[in-house]
Write a structure and sequence with these properties.
Layout lengths: L4 H11 L3 H6 L3 H7 L6 H22 L5 H12 L1 H11 L17 H5 L6 H19 L1 H10 L1 H4 L10 H11 L4 E10 L5 E9 L5 E6 L2 H15 L6
Antiparallel strand pairs: 1-2, 2-3
C-alpha cells in the first residue's frame, strides 16, 4: 500500500522545530562526542509502549474476527524491527542533503563513518522515539493519525502473512490427539543451481497425506501443511 508522503511530511514538519523532535533524532554517539543534547533512548522507550498500545487498539477495532493468538501475531508484525526500519526510510527520517549529511538524525563522527544512518537498530529506534516526541507535542489523536498514515497503511493486505500453517496444523492435531509427521521425499537441483525440496506430511491417524514443494525444507513443509488445512477445511482461529 502506497504511503501519502505529503501528509506524513506535514506531521513531521509540525514538530521538527521542537526540543522533543531534536532529542528523538539524537543518537548517543552524538551526545558522547559533543557533550551536547540528550539522546533518544528515553523517548524510544516511551515510543515503543505507545506504538504497541495503538497497534493493539487498531487490531482490536479493525479485526473483530481475529482470536487473541492471531491478534498477537499481527501486532508483532506491525511493530517488529524490519517494519519500523522500512517505514523510517520511506518517510525520510534518515534523509540526507546534497552533501550526503543527515538532515534530521544527529550522529557522532564515528557512527557517521560506520554508516549509522543506515543501521537497522537506529532506524527502528528513531521511528519509536519520533512517535513519543509526537505524542508529547501533539497528543494521542495526532499519533493515531500518523500511525494510520504509516504502520496501519503498511499492514493492509499483509494480514495473511502472519499465518504459520505448520504451527496451526500442529495445534489442530494436538487437539485431535493426533501427531503430524513430515518426511523429505526428494531434493534436486533446478535452474540457476537452486534446490527444490519435496516433503510429504501425514498423520498417525491416517486422516491426511499431502505433498509440498519449495526452495527450502521449511517452505515445502509449510506448503504441504497449507494443503492439508485447505482440503480438510480447517477454520483458522
Amino acid at each position: 500500500m502506497k504511503l501519502n508522503k505529503d501528509k506524513i511530511q506535514k506531521v513531521i514538519d509540525s514538530i521538527k522545530n521542537t526540543e522533543h523532535f531534536q532529542q528523538a533524532l539524537t543518537h548517543t554517539s552524538y551526545c558522547n562526542e559533543s557533550n551536547l543534547g540528550t539522546s533518544y533512548e528515553r523517548l524510544e522507550f516511551l515510543g515503543d509502549r505507545i506504538l504497541n498500545f495503538y497497534a493493539s487498539l487498531f487490531i482490536y477495532q479493525n479485526f473483530p474476527d481475529f482470536a487473541e493468538g492471531k491478534m498477537s501475531k499481527l501486532q508483532q508484525l506491525m511493530v517488529k524491527e524490519s517494519t519500523l526500519v522500512e517505514l523510517s526510510k520511506k518517510i525520510g527520517l534518515n534523509r540526507t542533503d546534497e552533501k550526503n549529511k543527515p538532515i534530521y538524525l544527529r550522529l557522532g563522527e564515528g557512527e557517521t563513518k560506520n554508516q549509522g544512518i543506515n543501521k537497522n537498530s537506529i532506524l527502528a529506534d528513531i521511528f519509536e522515539s519520533f512517535v513519543a516526541a509526537l505524542y508529547l507535542e501533539k497528543g494521542g489523536r495526532t499519533v493515531y493519525y500518523f500511525l494510520k498514515l504509516t504502520v496501519f497503511t503498511w499492514i493492509k493486505g499483509k494480514e495473511n502473512a502472519i499465518w504459520d500453517y505448520k504451527s496451526y496444523l500442529q495445534e489442530y492435531c494436538q487437539e485431535q490427539r493426533n501427531k503430524v509427521n513430515y518426511r523429505q521425499k526428494e531434493v534436486k537441483r533446478i535452474k540457476n543451481n537452486q534446490l527444490l525440496f519435496t516433503v510429504e506430511v501425514s498423520d498417525e491417524l491416517e486422516t491426511f497425506r499431502e505433498e509440498g514443494k519449495g526452495h527450502s525444507k521449511d517452505e515445502a513443509e509449510k506448503k504441504a501443511a497449507a494443503k492439508v488445512i485447505k482440503n480438510l477445511k480447517i477454520t483458522k482461529k
